[in-house]
Amino acid sequence: MGDLELGKKITEYRKAKNLNLSALAAEIDLSVSMLSQIEKGMANPSLNTLKLISKTLDVSLFNFFIENDQKNNLVVKPENRKKIILPESENISYELLTPDLKGTIEFALMKIEPGYSSSINLISHTGEEMAYVMKGNIDIYLDTHDNKLSLSAGDSIRILPNMKHRWENNYNEDSEIIFAVTPTSF
Q: What is the pTM (predicted TM-score) of this model?
């Protein structure tokens, strides 16, 4: 998906929430001109900015990247997963494991390379999240940058609704985390 399509989707969701540019920009602490450039496809938003937009507009981050598929698919083959890799964070990827976001649960795979984190700031969302570390080791910060838990392959964790958190790979190998969020809100 190109920058223009991403910008159009942001505009569509913003208007559906009856927000003007300045209201959304103020809510996410971004200049009106930068938000306007993002919506026109003239600038690329950071992952943090997209997460803030997603949270403010109450839509899943994946909604900005998936096409509105009218098929009622039940199975997702690995080669058909919808994948998000942002230009400024090529070392982190998200793959949607559910066929779409029409249900009440979102299931995804996050891959983080060594030395990278899911975001700069701790981010929260309205859904309850369960995460399972499939591969490697990962640190998760909950509520503050001082509250760090270290998880290894096979560990799982519950993240309560609206609990701020951030994933960080401080280890020497890739980490893979599967998470489920309900209702869909990532």
A: 0.70
Pair 133, 156: CB distance under 8 Å = yes
Tally Cβ neighbours within 10 Å of residue 12. 14
Residues 8-33 have pLDDT tens digits of: 889 988 998 899 999 999 999 999 99
For the chain, what are the domain ranges?
3-45, 78-182
138-146: Cβ within 8 A, 24+ apart: 138/112, 138/167, 138/168, 138/169, 138/171, 138/175, 138/177, 139/167, 139/168, 139/169, 139/170, 140/165, 140/166, 140/167, 140/168, 141/165, 141/166, 141/168
**3-class DSSP state of 110:** strand
CATH 2.60.120.10 fits 78-182, yes or no: yes
**Fold annotation for 3-45:** 434 Repressor (Amino-terminal Domain) (1.10.260)
Q: Which residues contact 25 (CB under 8 A, 6 or more apart)?
A: 31, 32, 34, 35
Pair of tokens at residue 19: 């927000």
Give the three-class secondary structure for 45: coil
